[in-house]
Design a protein that fits this description.
With 475 residues, the protein is α/β, with parallel strands linked by helices. It folds into 3 domains: 13-162, Alpha-D-Glucose-1,6-Bisphosphate, Chain A, domain 3; 174-382, 3-Layer(aba) Sandwich (Alpha-D-Glucose-1,6-Bisphosphate, Chain A, domain 3), CATH 3.40.120; 386-472, Alpha-D-phosphohexomutase, C-terminal domain (TATA-Binding Protein). It has helices spanning 23-40, 57-70, 84-93, 126-134, 148-154, 163-173, 176-180, 198-203, 235-243, 271-285, 301-309, 320-330, 353-367, 371-382, 399-408, 461-472, and strands at residues 13-16, 47-51, 75-78, 98-102, 111-117, 157-160, 185-189, 209-213, 248-252, 259-262, 268-269, 292-295, 313-316, 334-336, 342-344, 386-393, 413-414, 417-423, 428-432, 437-442, 448-455. The strands form 4 sheets. It has a 6-stranded mixed β-sheet, with helices on both faces. Helix 11 links the parallel strand 12 and strand 13. Helix 1 crosses helix 4 (126-134).
Length: 475
């Protein structure tokens, strides 16, 4: 049996720092990725490596760079913590074979992670991840590597600034001058992460005012349990937005690939509604047409928009390892997931919290509405939708029992609504008579079970979640 096996979840591998997330583990992951790239791309193209603001992320990134250089790759290492979307875009802009990102995204401060991206800047599909995992050795004894100082001196590893090219790309996608002169007051919660400073930099010079909070480096993430852009982590930001009389609150997670939204009243706009808003913005305000790609855990409002605007909607498993390949396959207009990550055509098939935030601001300006009014406008099109989610810790030794419970479940009704179909693709999704759904999934990166639901009836949300937990056997 492999000692300390490393398995990639919905988005890379994550672990507890100094427990299973160690320098040795990072070197092992890097070796597996290097072997994969040598097989599919060769060593002629460079490899981009970036990192976040977590404890020792830069040092872990340098360890990855040592291994990639040891395998003959020219390594482009970011010169500081960089948002995940800048790293993904750099893979394309630099003509790289792929990219590594040292980040645990929204995980607690105790964790760090290892993400990999392909030449298109997107997540690698499950087949490719399987090849990478198979190439990860049991230890790092025979892994080739070049000391980081020697590699920097020889040019095998080169530090670079990923910001300018990404900044230029955003200017092509959004008319920033209009946003700068819109006279908005925008509160930005960077969640102590890599999104700090970006909206201020992008939107300065006009009548729009940007106020940032949690915008310095603090790896323990004070005032939140983790840098995930959902309540209660954003409660401080919501309250501050009321105090500042802000028109909107934008929240970026730890590595800035996800976005959260607060309205002008300091109320959270959940991530399913944000996905609906972004799709509606592209279809209605910008007049774009093209497929929509969604994970099975996100909103059915997208199917309704697809019918209204005559565009196809494709459903995938949870994680951009499914979304990104499908977006490339069908040339999708937009792709996204329940966690608040959205990707857009003309950019990279990767979540981008900064671009998504700019698009939401552009929607406000084009349609001359505040966020709560935009939600009302969306509901006029597709009807009201209500969503919630519960994450419940599991005893690892009982996980098999819980999985068996839900696997055998055949309920005719949940939450007082008739079950019309059961989909067992990536979790257990129960379609409901009102067009809503209940989903039960076991996390691939943490010892928790997630129970989600969406319904057109507000009073059904709590009963649905409770019935979901009962089906698992944890309540």
């Amino acid at each position: 049996m492999t000692r300390n096996p490393i398995k990639f979840g919905t988005d890379g591998w994550r672990g507890r720092i100094a427990e299973n997330y160690t320098f040795e583990a990072v070197r092992r992951c890097s070796h597996g990725f290097a072997k994969y790239l040598l097989k599919v791309e060769g060593s002629e193209k460079p490899v981009v490596i970036g990192y976040d603001k977590r404890f020792a992320s830069q040092a872990f990134a340098e360890s990855a760079a040592e291994v990639m250089a040891g395998h003959g790759f020219h390594v482009l290492l970011t010169d500081g913590p960089s948002p995940t979307p800048t790293i993904s875009y750099s893979a394309v802009h630099q003509g790289a074979a792929g990219a590594i990102n040292i980040t645990a995204s929204h995980n607690p401060s105790s964790d760090n992670g290892f993400k990999v991206r392909d030449q298109y800047g997107g997540a690698i599909d499950p087949e490719g991840l399987g090849i990478i995992e198979a190439g990860i050795p049991d230890d790092d004894q025979n892994i080739p590597r070049v000391n980081i100082r020697e590699a920097l001196a020889s040019g095998a590893v080169e530090r670079f600034d990923a910001s300018p090219a990404y900044f230029a790309q955003l200017e092509k996608l959004v008319d920033l001058d209009i946003l700068r002169d819109a006279g908005l007051t925008i509160l930005v919660d960077a969640m102590w992460g890599n999104g700090a400073g970006w909206f201020s930099k992008l939107l300065s010079g006009g009548s729009t005012k940007v106020i940032e909070i949690h915008n310095t480096r603090n790896p323990i993430f004070p005032e939140m349990t983790r840098p995930e852009p959902i309540p209660p982590n954003i409660d401080v930001g919501l309250q501050r937005s009321v105090e500042e009389n802000a028109d909107v609150l934008l929240i970026t997670d730890g590595d800035a690939d996800r976005v959260g939204l607060g309205d002008e009243h300091g109320k959270f706009v959940n991530q399913l509604r944000v996905f609906g808003l972004l799709a509606y913005y592209l279809l209605e305000a910008r007049g774009e047409r093209g497929p929509i790609v969604k994970t099975l855990s996100t909103t059915s409002m997208l199917e309704k928009l697809g019918e209204i605007y005559d565009v196809p909607v494709f459903q995938t498993g949870v994680g951009f390892k499914y979304v990104a390949p499908k977006m490339l396959e069908v040339d999708a207009m937009v792709g996204g997931e329940e966690s608040g990550g959205y990707a857009f055509r003309g950019h990279v098939p990767e979540r981008d919290g900064i671009l998504a935030g700019l698009y939401l601001l552009d929607m406000m300006v084009r349609l001359d509405r505040k966020p709560s009014q935009l939600v009302e406008l969306l509901f006029e099109k597709v009807g009201p939708h209500y969503y919630d989610r519960i994450d419940t810790p599991l005893f690892p030794e009982k996980r098999a029992e819980y999985e068996e419970n839900i696997s055998n479940a055949q309920p005719k009704e949940v939450g007082g609504l008739k079950v019309t179909d059961i989909l067992k693709v990536d979790g257990y999704k129960f379609s409901l008579e009102d067009g809503g759904w209940l989903l039960v999934r076991f996390s691939g990166t943490e010892p928790i079970v997630r129970v989600y639901c969406e319904t057109t009836q507000a009073d059904r949300v709590k009963p649905l979640l409770e019935d979901g937990l009962k089906l698992v056997g944890v309540k």
